[in-house]
Amino acid sequence: MCPPHFFQAKGVRVYRLVASDMDETFLDSNHAIPPANLRALRRMRELGVLFVPSSGRWYSSIMDNFPGEARELLEGSYVLSYNGGFINRVGDPEPLTTCGLSRACAEELYARGRELGLAMHINVADGHVFVPDADDDERAYLASISGVTHVNSKDHPDLSFLEGRDIVKILYVNRDFDALQELGASLAPVAERLGVEITFSSKRYLEFMPAGVNKGTGLARLAEMLEDPPIRGHRGGRLGQRPFDDPSCGAGRGRGQRHGRCAPLLRRGARHDRHGRRIRGARRAVLGTLSPFAPLPIWGL
After folding, report:
1. pTM assigned to the model
2. Confidence category of residue 16, pLDDT binned at 50, 70, 90
3. What's the longest Cα–Cα distance across the chain?
4. Angle, CA of 82, 68 and 72, to the nearest 5°
5. Does the chain have fewer CB atoms within 10 Å around its N or its C terminus?
6. Eight-class DSSP state of 32
7. How far is C-alpha 240 from the geometric centre of its chain's CA atoms?
8. What is the torsion angle, in degrees rounded to the nearest 10, for the CA atoms of residue 22, residue 191, residue 221 and residue 21?
9. How many helices and strands in the chain, by DSSP H and E?
């Protein structure tokens, strides 16, 4: 029996931790785990490899995606939520690390979003998101996600309705992704002044996170917490994140980021990896990587 997060094969370098983005990557369009990815979880468990879910959503919402056997297969692992700003042990809702926006920063971003006439997500630290002015499409997109409360910004000219609750991040919603990217570029000076970073997700969200917080730095922090040099180095990998999801990828080459590469092994929907091998989604890359006979490199950080 292999001890937790350790597998050794003579003459073979294998991975001991795999972190993956969730929505539209490890999960299908219904926010559920496809059967092939459940098989990948079983294989990782057999090899003693930690699987770490990583998402911009909150811990309880991520755990909702792992019912039954999938939940058991995560035992002893960790969850990166809120873009890597929060780290939880699986089964413990109390985070080991946290982050957040100042109230003044959040108020300015909220006021600007109202001026722009955009729907927003206001994520609070206790695992809820308040969504002002969502249209029918956005409501349908969020229907299967727990912890969502829809509100009307006309009833809330400021964020006083969230008094006493710590705000982690704010998202602007726009399904015109080109326009959203242009907005992000125009808001870059504002973000710098406020001490936040702009990132994009799901081709519909512009996210404001505290500067320096992203899934790469969150994974590096987890690696340091585990105090396991092989995990801190090149034996950890992250799957599925698009280059525009994490603009700071590669900016900091600390532990867990030593390669500093933004280009992942796979892009969603890709038919071939960067070596020209035909694949079918991230699950094949995961299973191939974890094979003790023919490991494939994963470059996610």
Report:
1. 0.73
2. confident
3. 64
4. 75
5. N
6. -
7. 10
8. 10
9. 10, 11
